[in-house]
Inverse folding.
């Protein structure tokens, strides 16, 4: 159908040209319609916007991420499931890509597709005679035990946020086992030291995580309490159970003291999740950042959003970051008299500013400047990793559909 439409357009164009020019136009149109390259793809599929010069072949290396590889091919790297041709069901279980795999950009079908070398029918039938039957059979992939599939995003960055509570209900946290004393009455203890904890049951697990309450999180619009953010201090193992139990600190990220709480570690989330856009009417706000961020929040840092499960947020959602507009009052500057030969002195136009001549207040538009990837979701809040940004992220910035 595409070729027929292009042919009709060419015929119409040819009718208005000389015979020599007509033949040239028809031949050019015919050649263009048969090209399987990037120019043909750009007009056939506007959903996937390729980079100006994407590589035809790429070898996966250790440390790569699916997002990072996609940046080599797509202007919107979070759309890599479309580049792989994955359907809605497959998005939950993305392709397993390993270091050493060779990726091929295939444009022969009119739609860009990325695949692993050796997975296409062309490779399966290579070397076979014309009209011969090619027998396909399952193959076993062998790889070293230490070889792991590359993750969607950097696991080294989000790893500490996957198996820790971080956001807890106030009542639940206050009911958790509490450190009531330390070894030799020290103010703080660290790895290898002992502490005494009240509230551990006899059938409780042996290993706990230690936390300290930091700050409550409120919705900036409704002022609703969304949860309490807690600070991870370390891990401890129960060595003796009693009304007041004894624990030994296994590792300490920060020193532990009286009043800190013990919380059971939740199971780790799976890193194999794929990016997909949040719904179109979604809106939220950046309300917090990790405890190690002092002022500016940049790329590959974690932010907290005031939206969670109850708002339809899912692991893998991609949101756009916006700097909200502000109200400004335009100034009306007086006309310059610099070309007046009769003037006796030179004065800056700003020195004649009259507040009564200022214009009506106007609202500047919101400015989009980056993307964030949601990797952990709680009931009322969620954690997102800043993936691409052209400026620092500020608390209070808006998040919307990309």
């Amino acid at each position: 159908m595409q070729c027929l439409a292009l042919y009709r357009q060419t015929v119409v164009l040819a009718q208005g040209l000389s015979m020599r020019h007509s033949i040239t136009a028809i031949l050019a149109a015919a050649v263009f319609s048969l090209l399987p390259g990037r120019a043909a793809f750009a007009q056939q599929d506007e959903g996937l916007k390729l980079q100006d010069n994407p590589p035809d072949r790429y070898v996966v290396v250790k440390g790569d991420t699916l997002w990072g590889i996609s940046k080599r091919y797509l202007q919107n790297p979070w759309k890599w499931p479309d580049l792989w041709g994955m359907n809605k069901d497959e998005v939950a279980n993305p392709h397993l890509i390993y270091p050493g795999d060779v990726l091929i950009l295939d444009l022969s079908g009119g739609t860009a597709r990325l695949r692993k070398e050796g997975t296409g029918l062309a490779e399966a039938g290579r070397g076979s005679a014309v009209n011969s039957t090619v027998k396909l059979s399952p193959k076993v992939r062998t790889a070293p035990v230490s070889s792991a599939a590359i993750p969607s995003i950097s696991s080294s960055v989000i790893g500490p946020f996957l198996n820790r509570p971080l956001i807890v209900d106030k009542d639940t946290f206050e009911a958790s086992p509490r450190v009531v004393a330390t070894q030799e009455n020290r103010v703080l203890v660290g790895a290898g030291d002992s502490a005494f904890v009240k509230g551990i049951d006899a059938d409780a697990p042996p290993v706990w995580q230690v936390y300290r309450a930091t700050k409550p999180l409120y919705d900036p619009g409704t002022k609703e309490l969304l949860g309490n953010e807690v600070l991870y201090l370390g891990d401890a193992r129960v060595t003796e159970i009693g009304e007041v139990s004894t624990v030994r600190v296994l590792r300490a990220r920060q020193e532990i003291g009286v009043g800190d709480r013990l919380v059971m570690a939740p199971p780790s989330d799976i890193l194999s999740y794929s990016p997909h856009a949040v719904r179109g009417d979604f809106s939220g706000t950046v309300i917090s950042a990790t405890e190690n961020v002092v002022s500016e929040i940049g790329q590959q840092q974690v932010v907290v959003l005031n939206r969670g499960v109850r708002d339809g947020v899912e692991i893998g959602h991609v949101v756009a970051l916006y700097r909200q507009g502000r109200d400004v009052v335009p100034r009306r500057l007086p006309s310059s008299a610099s070309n007046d030969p009769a003037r006796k002195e030179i004065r800056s136009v700003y020195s004649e500013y009259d507040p009564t001549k200022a214009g009506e207040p106007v609202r500047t538009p919101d400015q989009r400047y980056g993307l964030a990837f949601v990797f952990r979701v709680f009931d009322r809040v969620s954690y997102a990793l800043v993936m691409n940004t052209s400026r620092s992220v500020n608390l209070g910035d808006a998040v919307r559909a990309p």
Q: What stands out?
A: The chain has a mean pLDDT of 74. Helices lie at 2-15, 19-34, 38-44, 66-73, 80-83, 121-124, 155-158, 170-174. The first helix runs from residue 2 to 15. Residues 164-263 form one domain.
